[in-house]
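SUBJECT: A protein chain and its fold
Encoding: whole-number codes for local backbone shapes
Chain under study, with its fold:
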Amino acid sequence: MDHVKALIIKFIMCTAVLWIVLGAFYGVGFGDILMLSVLLTAVSYIVGDLLLLPRFENWGATLVDLGLTFLGIWFLGPLLFEENIPLGTAAIFSAIVIAVGEYFFHKYMEKEVLDDWDQFVTDEDRDVERAKVQTEFSEELSDTDRKRDE
């Protein structure tokens, strides 16, 4: 149920941003925005939130979501939009605003949805975490100390 709630939140965020940016500024129809939101939400949730967020933390997943959103709008825009708009500008502006939202969405995902972070940690990482590493301090022996000890 947590994944369904997260998908709904992500879909609403994506749709709202695209509706404001593409709909208000560039006149793209709501049906096109809805279709693009469904596709972007599905791909970025699977790739960015489920696969990469646990491995690369928030910053890495946010950058991937920025790239996925930009490429998604860039490639799907000509197929979906009937309007002739400056697609590069619209894509980068939408991707930046969505990436800001994704940053906060990832914090929600970490706390509420992805509660089992240990499943993504390798055995080597666990060994390093469990190891009790201590530094040994000692005084260096000078030549006079060595002669005295002999």
About this structure: The chain has five helices and no strands. The two ends are 74 Å apart (CA to CA). Residues 30-80 form the longest helix (51 residues). The mean pLDDT is 84.
